[in-house]
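Annex B. Sample input.
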Amino acid sequence: MPRVPPPRLPYSEAPSEVAVTPEATTSPVRRSARRTPTRVSEPTVGPISPAIAGPVTDRTAPHIADPPDRRITDGAAPRATDRTADRLADLEGRRARAVTSGGPRRRGEFGARERIDLLLDAGSFTETGLFVRARPTGDGSGRPYGDGVVTGHGTIDGRPVCVFAQDSTVFGGSMGEAFGEKTLALMDLALKTGCPVIGLNDGGGARIQEGVASLALYAELVRRNVRASGVIPQISVVLGPCAGGAAYSPAITDFTVMVDGASHMFVTGPDVIEAVTGERTGAEELGGARTSNTVNGNAHFLATDEVDALDTVRDLLSYLPANNLERPPQYAPGAAPAGLCLDSVVPDRLGQAYDMRDILRAVVDDGELLQVQELFAPNIICAFALVEGGTVGVVANQPLHAAGVLDIDASEKAARFVRFCDAFGIPLLTFTDVPGYLSGVRQEQAGIIRRGAKLLYAYAEATVPKVTVVVRKAYGGGYAVMGSKHLGADINLAWPTARIAVMGAEGAVGVLHRRELAAAEDPEALRARLVAAYESTHGTPYLAAERGYVDAVIAPRDTRSHICRALRALRGKRAPMPERRHGNIPL
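Annex B, continued. Sample output.
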């Protein structure tokens, strides 16, 4: 069913600098749309030489200078004629040279403008800084137009966005002074107009021949990222190398998409590591797309190719507001999934695993989830979904992986997701089945106390509507952190299968009745009786309900209807916080 976007609310009193056509504001939003790319983009700025398509060959060296017959010489003699027609012809010639200033691309790779055309709505891109040229360096390398980055604005599903794309065929996509200033200007435009900014990264880091100016602009870019954090969504797409100082900007942005087998992101490359430490490694092992998605958590989405990466960005943006002053998009309510009875999802045996995603898909619209960091810390699920057409952020323990336990990686993954949702007014749904925090020497020495506290901090700090469903286990600190009433959850529900206690029955009996068991003639029979007694008292949700820690114990099949009612009731929630500069999260 087509989903129509909401009317755009004013971000500021200043007129928007991003033009939106009337057709764009009424076009239906297409979520999860997959488009067939064309190898050569339609011209976006006047007549373009066929050379823009160029032969796709292996790149042997970055483009350094324009061909001699195309180079525009500074201080050229004035034309003999000054007719308007001549000036227009000169303009078209400059445009053509500007959009073809790059060199040959890597085999199978799209150019910077082709990538933008794939990302944005057809014909919506308006380029900025087309005639900006590289600063002279005195080494004869030339001054190509654009300086290795294409910047501009357009629309995705009719909603304005700003985008920049690094061009790896110009100076290897490295950041020079003009390159950096164009990117900063685009970031400033996105902040002023209140629209998301998307960066397509494919570059070699700082431009050595421009010296400290390149380093200064990396710091300026990070400062813009920090200023925009929590104000506008920032998405990084890594389509090639992203090394050195260039890697810190994607780390600060909200989401990072990488392409399997093509993307690399690291501070220090394999050659330097071997030279300094003697340690041998490869780019894939060090910071490839799979490493970044599964091992270190630097990335949030793993794409199969460039088209899939750009479609992931479109899909992600369909859940997000344009900025922190607007509500998330509201679509026509989706259908409640059919075919799964939640009353029989949770196994009777406590130690038996099940897939939490089955429960989530039975609750959200059309059974659709967009998981964030799906391959990293899989013992916890973070996902965007729709409930009655409105965006929600879902956090849930996953019993299929390590019984859904909270460890360092899971805590940090969920904490960042919760803070993003809170920054952009996205309600939080929490589904709890957690045995607690992971114990062990490695976790303790790695800082589970400090790093696990990040999730406690994130939930306690969040002021958006928070609804929690306790599905099965909610033991110890895991109960407290997973959206408990005590951390500020608004509505807490529990299934009859919920077990809310300090610890499981076996562990509790072993601690409380250690001496009795040691002295018993038949310790196993005594243990069984004590476990059964503990379960009847503490292994249910009713003790928590008696104290008001759970608002209702519900039949699993009624979960969606209870969540819908809770979110409707909380739509106008206000939760003022004390005045302060900012909190001090345990980083």
